[in-house]
Specification:
binds adenosine-5'-diphosphate; 232 residues; 6-stranded mixed beta sheet; alpha/beta; 2 domains; 33% helix; Rossmann fold; 4-stranded antiparallel beta sheet; 26% strand
Length: 232
């Protein structure tokens, strides 16, 4: 399991959203930390193969991430995920399974198993429009796991969650990181503190820190403030 970003630059018209980014990810939880506009979503979209780099390449175990094969091992939760408000949680997972081309019987079993693991089994027959933000995000996570991915990419998954939901979420992420590459982006330090095995900080499209929390040399919140000041 090796996800490699090599000298990746992404230019939009006359703006470099990512500027010569390189790193290799292995199993574990990796926090991608940066203020709004730092370039996190752009990088994640490229790492999912849905956006092409202007320069450089991204491979998973040697396979380019634009290849179909990679889709089978990838689970992606975009920031603006559409939830189909009138679907029940169970219907939604079954529908997503069909979209992902997964087998019907396995899908039912898998959906139930995932609803249990994200704590939504008792809500499985409830319509999504009745769900809290945290419940929707947990359903979003369940959806990314339907195909039993090895690489899980979550774009600002804790946006809009209350503190209790954040804790619940962190526990799910930590569990997933035991067997998979889990990359999650955030601008909130406490989301990845303690659970990230590695932290990559990006600012103005460049990696400004890549290491373990303790290597930041000080409290992570203070470290982040040094880099970004009051930026959100
Ligand atoms: P983040 O996820 O960290 O908030 P983004 O990757 O969304 O950062 O954005 C990085 C920079 O690229 C920002 O300045 C943003 O305005 C710009 N950007 C993002 N998407 C586009 C686009 N489709 N066209 C032009 N500029 C974009």
């Amino acid at each position: 399991m090796e996800l490699t970003v090599r000298n990746v630059t992404k230019e939009y018209k006359n703006k470099k959203a990512n500027d010569n980014i390189s790193f290799t990810l292995h199993k574990g939880v990796i926090g991608l930390l940066g203020a709004n506009g730092a370039g996190k979503s752009t990088l994640m979209r490229m790492m999912c193969g849905i956006l092409s780099p202007t320069e450089g390449d991204i491979t998973y175990d040697g396979i380019d991430v634009s290849k179909e094969e990679y889709r089978n091992v990838l689970g992606y939760l975009p920031q603006d995920f559409g939830y189909y408000p009138d679907f029940t949680a169970m219907d939604f997972l079954m529908y997503m399974s069909a979209l992902k081309g997964l087998d019907n019987i396995d899908s039912k079993k898998k959906s139930i198993e995932l609803l249990k693991s994200v704590g939504l089994f008792d809500n499985r027959k409830q319509k999504i429009k009745t769900f809290s933000g945290g419940m929707k995000q947990r359903l979003g996570i369940a959806q990314t796991l339907l195909n039993e991915p090895e690489v899980i990419i979550l774009d600002e998954p804790t946006a809009g969650l209350d503190p209790k939901e954040r804790v619940r979420f962190r526990n799910i992420i930590a569990e997933l990181g035991k067997d998979n590459i889990v990359l999650l982006s955030t601008h909130i330090v406490s989301d990845i503190e303690k659970i990230a095995d590695r932290i990559i900080v990006i600012k103005d499209g460049r990696v400004v820190f890549d290491g373990k929390e303790e290597e930041a040399g000080k409290d992570l919140e203070a470290f982040y403030l040094d880099i970004f000041g009051g930026e959100e």
